[in-house]
Design a protein that fits this description.
alpha/beta; 5-stranded parallel sheet; OB fold (Dihydrolipoamide Acetyltransferase, E2P); single chain; 5-stranded mixed barrel; about 450 residues; Rossmann fold
């Protein structure tokens, strides 16, 4: 491009040299209008076939049906250089199929290679490039290159697979949803969840999902949900769009927010064929918001099926144990019955033996018991007080009926009653004297 401009300067010198010289220093003087015409003639001659230029889009401005922006670059000294680009409505209409086919949309920050013609507009004193074509492969290649570079950087730092190592709640019912309210993506997701009939609890962070401020809003929402203790899964969704719009989800700040999240992050971004850095680092990525909702529903249903299956297994096992126990109990009952009958029969036999023995020994036992009773009767008769008194013994009692067994029971003056074989006699105690008993020598 610089060589072309050098050539352009030479051409202008040649043009000016051929004109009449009427300046004070011998150089021709132009009116501004003449200068504008001359510049455009030189530009047309030198770039008669047009030219390709590349740079980064900046300062997008739409004035229906036309589009205006600057194509920016940096020179060898690190200084910003730029050229104005005009895209007329008629040319935009021609280019739109190409942009749509490649999934591109002109936006700030996009690196593009475009074809056009240079034009100097005297009304503004401004050189512009009239855009007539675009090379979508250049832009797509740059997007892919930036994406690959970021993925390499994330892998090198260890952030790439970090979120996939976060444990997922087996019943992920509490969702932190990051998306733009009212858009098709978030609407499809919520509809799918609602139709499941499951008890999901959803908290929504309403964010911008495209444009310069989108990466900051999305990453901030992810980090905010990650600090809460009432969320099981963070879900990031966005419906379809151009590759330019969806490139938001290739932003490094979003990738790092997902990688650093203490909660698992699910993504459902764009169309079936789209894949973004956010998808690469997420715990799980799904092709669309609807597919993301379906996956969460399947997790919950799978857990419920496992619970139902476990209860069924428990019930079946309990039934089997009851059946086994019933069979065992019946067997034990039969064994007990058999043992009981055997024991009773044996007891009957032993009892019969004893009865027979008793029958045989009964007369002998009666004789022995009768003799023992007679002997006992004789002993009792001998101890009968009447018989004792008949042999010459007597019984002395105090006036209140107590038997006197020792002189210690009496005092002088006490009245006593003496019972004899044929009657009793009352008397008074004059004196008592104990009997001296010899002591045993040591």
């Amino acid at each position: 491009m610089s060589d072309d401009l050098d050539d352009l300067d030479g051409d202008l010198d040649d043009v000016f040299a051929d004109e009449d010289i009427d300046g004070p220093d011998g150089v021709r003087t132009f009116s501004i209008a003449e200068l504008a015409e001359e510049i455009n003639e030189v530009l047309a001659d030198h770039f008669d076939e047009g030219l390709w230029v590349w740079g980064e889009v900046s300062g997008m401005n739409f004035k229906n049906p036309h589009t205006y922006f600057n194509l920016v670059d940096v020179d060898t000294r690190g200084r910003k250089v730029q050229v104005s680009v005009n895209l007329w409505g008629t040319e935009m209409k021609k280019l739109r199929p190409t942009l749509m086919k490649s999934g591109l949309e002109l936006a700030n920050g996009l690196k593009i290679r475009i074809f056009g013609n240079l034009d100097y507009y005297g009304g503004f004193g401004k050189l512009s490039l009239i855009m007539r074509g675009i090379d979508p492969n250049y832009t797509l290649g740059d997007i892919a290159l930036q994406r690959e570079e970021l993925i390499r950087k994330l892998k090198q730092s260890g952030a790439y697979g970090r979120n996939r190592e976060v444990a997922l709640n087996p019943v992920p019912l509490r969702l932190g949803l990051v998306g733009s309210k009212g858009t098709a993506g978030i609407t499809d997701f919520l509809q799918q969840i609602d139709e499941s009939g499951l008890g999901f609890d959803i908290k929504i962070a309403n964010v911008t999902v495209q444009g310069d401020g989108a990466p900051v809003e999305i990453s901030s929402a992810i980090r905010a949900f990650g600090r809460r203790d009432d969320i099981d899964v963070i879900v990031v969704v966005r419906g379809g769009g151009s590759k330019t719009d969806l490139a938001t989800f290739d932003a490094e700040e979003i990738a790092l927010a997902i990688a650093d999240s203490p909660l698992p992050v699910f993504t459902g971004i764009g169309h079936q064929i789209d894949l973004h850095v956010a998808d690469e680092v997420a715990h799980e990525s799904h092709k669309t918001p609807t597919a993301c909702a379906v996956a969460l529903i399947e997790y919950v249903k799978g857990y419920l099926d496992e619970v139902d299956g476990a209860w069924s297994d428990i019930a079946a096992r309990a039934g089997q144990l009851l059946d086994d126990s019933g069979h065992t109990l019946s067997k034990v009952a039969r064994e007990i019955a058999v043992h009981t009958r055997t024991a009773v029969e044996r007891a009957d036999e032993r009892l019969g033996d004893r009865v027979d023995r008793l029958r045989r020994r009964a007369p002998q036992l009666l004789a022995e018991r009768s003799l023992a009773i007679d002997n006992l009767e004789k002993r009792v008769s001998l101890l009968d007080p009447v018989n004792v008194l008949a042999r010459g013994w007597s019984i002395t009692r105090t006036s209140d009926g107590r038997v006197v067994r020792s002189v210690d029971d009496l005092e002088a003056g006490d009245e006593i009653v003496t019972t004899l074989r044929d009657g009793s006699a009352k008397s008074a105690v004059v004196d008592t004297s104990p009997v001296d008993r010899p002591t045993k020598s040591s």
